[in-house]
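Propose amino acids for all 424 sites.
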């Protein structure tokens, strides 16, 4: 067995295969990149600066199917370049990179047996089949499973938000049964094209199975994910997919959204809760976006008159005053009506410092009241640091330590009112 393969081999091979954007870039370099040792030395130095020293391990694995620790891979690479330069001085004409690599491992490093110098065209085909869905050219289910697990680990390690969209084509079975599988395949390819154009380059759009898709959104909080879900749903609707076949009725999608850390702490929970949110979207009439929410959770609501601001998507902010708050929701007064189901970004000033916290809420009800409107909203996302401060404030409020909070010129009540689900 080749050295290095037994230890980190399985993990490294998986990580290299799954680093699709990086591996694709490396394969493109092997196909069309530098042809001289100096060119490769500059290119890899630049890539190391951009992506880290693992670039050397990836390159050698792609070329030879041998797996090395990072520092060992870098050392082998520098030795290959020096030997390649020596070969070019001795051999008429220019020596190809793969010839230089083969010469190095078979002659200079004889302890490494049977390196497999891979034909780049075959490598490209193998790479594609390993991570891409053949029909849609999105990432496949296997790739998604590994990538979501790695992104959850990274999110947890760096305390960064991570969101997941689960997407299902509405009434696709009926469409397929009526118009045939060929029309269904064309529709799925068109849908995949819309998804690909809507998401960012860093996002992971995958075919989850059948007519269901998943989009992984690194470094994306829940409110931003909901906005993307709405934009994606609208883009699919406007694309008119299947409109000609259905005499005017184009295909639509339902979208479920869940985020980490607010909704889940593990890979399994994140996928499960995004899937449950998708089921809610289906149950609500389809062609809509729904966030995950645990409606069974109840929290004590506490009277508090917090001043703050809110904004609906990018339409600018307006002032608000809360009537009561809980861990799960807020009831606030404002001058403008808000539609039920709207996703709203809220900023509240917590006493005594007035330092603001932010959260994303979903409007559950809005009723007219004395020259304005009372809005009941469910908190669907709050950054972890803000949630800690908010909980501390609620604990102080419960303990009667917030008697100086202003409310209509009078001290705010400090007793908790338990009236069922938060902001219901």
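Proposal:
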């Amino acid at each position: 067995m080749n050295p290095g393969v037994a230890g980190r081999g399985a993990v490294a091979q998986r990580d290299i295969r799954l680093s699709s954007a990086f591996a694709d870039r490396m394969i493109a370099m092997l196909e069309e990149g530098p042809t001289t040792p100096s060119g490769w030395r500059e290119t890899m130095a630049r890539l190391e600066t951009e992506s880290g020293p693992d670039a050397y391990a990836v390159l050698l694995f792609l070329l030879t199917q041998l797996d090395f620790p990072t520092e060992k891979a870098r050392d082998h690479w520098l030795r290959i370049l020096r030997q390649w330069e020596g070969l070019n001085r001795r051999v008429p004409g220019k020596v190809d990179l793969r010839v230089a690599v083969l010469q190095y491992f078979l002659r200079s490093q004889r302890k490494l047996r049977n390196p497999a110098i891979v034909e780049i065209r075959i490598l490209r085909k193998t790479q594609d089949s390993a991570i891409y869905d053949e029909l849609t050219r999105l990432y496949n289910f296997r790739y998604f499973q590994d990538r979501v697990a790695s992104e959850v680990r990274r999110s947890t390690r760096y305390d960064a938000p991570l969101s997941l969209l689960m997407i299902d084509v509405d009434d696709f079975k009926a469409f397929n049964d009526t118009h045939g599988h060929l029309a269904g395949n064309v529709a799925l390819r068109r849908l995949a094209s819309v998804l690909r154009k809507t998401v960012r380059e860093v996002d992971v759009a995958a075919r989850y199975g059948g007519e269901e898709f998943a989009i992984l959104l690194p470094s994306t909080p829940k409110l931003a994910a909901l906005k993307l879900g709405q934009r994606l749903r609208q883009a699919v609707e406007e694309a008119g997919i299947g409109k000609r076949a259905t005499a005017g009725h184009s295909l639509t999608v339902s979208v479920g959204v869940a985020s980490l850390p607010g909704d889940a702490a593990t890979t399994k929970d994140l996928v499960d809760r995004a899937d449950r949110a998708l089921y809610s979207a289906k149950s609500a009439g389809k062609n809509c976006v729904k966030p995950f929410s645990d409606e069974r959770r109840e929290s004590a609501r506490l009277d508090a008159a917090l001043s703050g601001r809110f904004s609906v998507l990018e339409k600018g902010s307006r002032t608000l005053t809360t009537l009561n708050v809980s861990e799960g929701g807020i009831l606030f007064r404002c001058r403008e009506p808000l539609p039920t189901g709207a996703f709203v970004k809220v900023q509240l000033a917590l006493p005594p410092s007035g330092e603001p916290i932010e959260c994303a809420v979903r409007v559950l009800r809005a009723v007219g009241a004395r020259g304005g409107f009372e809005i009941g909203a469910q908190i669907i996302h709050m950054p972890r640091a803000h949630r800690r401060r908010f909980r501390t404030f609620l604990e102080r409020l419960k303990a009667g330590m917030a008697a100086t909070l202003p409310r209509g010129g009078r001290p705010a009540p400090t007793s908790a009112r338990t009236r069922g689900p938060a902001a219901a």
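Residues 1-19, 404-424 have pLDDT under 50 and may be disordered. The longest strand covers residues 355-369.
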